[in-house]
Write a structure and sequence with these properties.
The chain has helices spanning 3-13, 18-37, 83-94, and strands spanning 42-44, 48-55, 58-61, 68-71, 74-81. By secondary structure, the protein is α+β, with helices and mostly antiparallel strands. A hairpin with a 6-residue loop joins strand 3 and strand 4 (68-71). Helix 1 (3-13) packs across helix 2. The longest helix has 20 residues, at 18-37. The two termini are 24 Å apart.
Length: 96
Amino acid sequence: MTKSELIERLAQSQDLPRKRAEEAVNCIFEALAASLESGNRIEIRGFGSFSLKQHRAYVGRNPKTGEEVPVDSKQAIHFKVGKQLREMVDALTDEP
Protein backbone atom coordinates (compact mmCIF):
# COMPACT_ATOMS: atom_id res chain seq x y z
CA MET A 1 0.00 0.00 0.00
CA THR A 2 1.30 3.43 -0.91
CA LYS A 3 0.68 6.70 0.89
CA SER A 4 -1.75 7.73 -1.88
CA GLU A 5 -3.70 4.50 -1.46
CA LEU A 6 -3.85 5.04 2.30
CA ILE A 7 -5.19 8.57 1.77
CA GLU A 8 -7.77 7.30 -0.71
CA ARG A 9 -8.91 4.51 1.63
CA LEU A 10 -9.24 6.94 4.55
CA ALA A 11 -11.22 9.39 2.42
CA GLN A 12 -13.63 6.66 1.29
CA SER A 13 -14.08 4.93 4.64
CA GLN A 14 -14.68 8.16 6.59
CA ASP A 15 -16.54 9.99 3.81
CA LEU A 16 -13.93 12.79 3.82
CA PRO A 17 -12.75 15.02 1.01
CA ARG A 18 -9.44 13.69 -0.31
CA LYS A 19 -7.65 16.88 0.76
CA ARG A 20 -8.75 16.44 4.41
CA ALA A 21 -7.72 12.78 4.39
CA GLU A 22 -4.31 13.77 3.00
CA GLU A 23 -3.89 16.38 5.76
CA ALA A 24 -4.76 13.77 8.40
CA VAL A 25 -2.30 11.20 7.03
CA ASN A 26 0.47 13.82 6.71
CA CYS A 27 -0.18 15.00 10.27
CA ILE A 28 0.14 11.46 11.63
CA PHE A 29 3.34 10.77 9.67
CA GLU A 30 4.86 14.08 10.80
CA ALA A 31 4.03 13.31 14.44
CA LEU A 32 5.57 9.84 14.16
CA ALA A 33 8.72 11.20 12.51
CA ALA A 34 9.06 13.97 15.12
CA SER A 35 8.71 11.44 17.92
CA LEU A 36 11.46 9.23 16.50
CA GLU A 37 13.63 12.27 15.82
CA SER A 38 13.33 13.13 19.52
CA GLY A 39 14.52 9.64 20.40
CA ASN A 40 11.13 8.42 21.61
CA ARG A 41 9.70 4.96 21.03
CA ILE A 42 6.36 4.66 19.23
CA GLU A 43 3.93 1.90 20.17
CA ILE A 44 0.72 1.25 18.26
CA ARG A 45 -1.03 -1.55 20.13
CA GLY A 46 -2.00 -4.47 17.94
CA PHE A 47 0.18 -3.18 15.09
CA GLY A 48 3.74 -2.84 16.38
CA SER A 49 6.38 -0.54 17.74
CA PHE A 50 9.08 1.64 16.23
CA SER A 51 12.30 2.44 18.06
CA LEU A 52 15.81 3.62 17.31
CA LYS A 53 18.63 1.12 17.39
CA GLN A 54 22.20 2.33 17.80
CA HIS A 55 24.82 0.74 15.54
CA ARG A 56 28.43 1.18 16.61
CA ALA A 57 31.23 2.41 14.37
CA TYR A 58 33.32 -0.21 12.60
CA VAL A 59 35.91 -0.62 9.87
CA GLY A 60 34.31 -1.77 6.62
CA ARG A 61 35.81 -2.65 3.29
CA ASN A 62 35.31 -1.09 -0.14
CA PRO A 63 34.08 -4.01 -2.27
CA LYS A 64 35.77 -2.71 -5.45
CA THR A 65 39.21 -1.91 -4.10
CA GLY A 66 39.36 -3.96 -0.89
CA GLU A 67 40.49 -0.80 0.92
CA GLU A 68 39.48 -0.47 4.57
CA VAL A 69 36.97 2.32 5.18
CA PRO A 70 35.84 3.65 8.58
CA VAL A 71 32.06 3.57 9.02
CA ASP A 72 30.61 5.99 11.58
CA SER A 73 28.14 4.95 14.25
CA LYS A 74 24.54 5.50 13.30
CA GLN A 75 20.97 5.00 14.39
CA ALA A 76 18.46 2.94 12.43
CA ILE A 77 14.72 2.62 12.83
CA HIS A 78 13.69 -0.78 14.15
CA PHE A 79 10.12 -2.12 13.78
CA LYS A 80 8.79 -4.91 15.95
CA VAL A 81 5.47 -6.34 14.80
CA GLY A 82 2.67 -6.50 17.36
CA LYS A 83 1.09 -9.75 18.50
CA GLN A 84 -2.31 -9.09 16.92
CA LEU A 85 -0.87 -8.22 13.50
CA ARG A 86 1.55 -11.17 13.62
CA GLU A 87 -1.28 -13.57 14.41
CA MET A 88 -3.42 -12.12 11.61
CA VAL A 89 -0.62 -12.55 9.08
CA ASP A 90 0.17 -16.03 10.39
CA ALA A 91 -3.48 -17.01 9.92
CA LEU A 92 -3.27 -15.94 6.27
CA THR A 93 -0.22 -18.12 5.66
CA ASP A 94 -1.83 -21.13 7.35
CA GLU A 95 -4.65 -21.21 4.81
CA PRO A 96 -4.18 -23.55 1.81
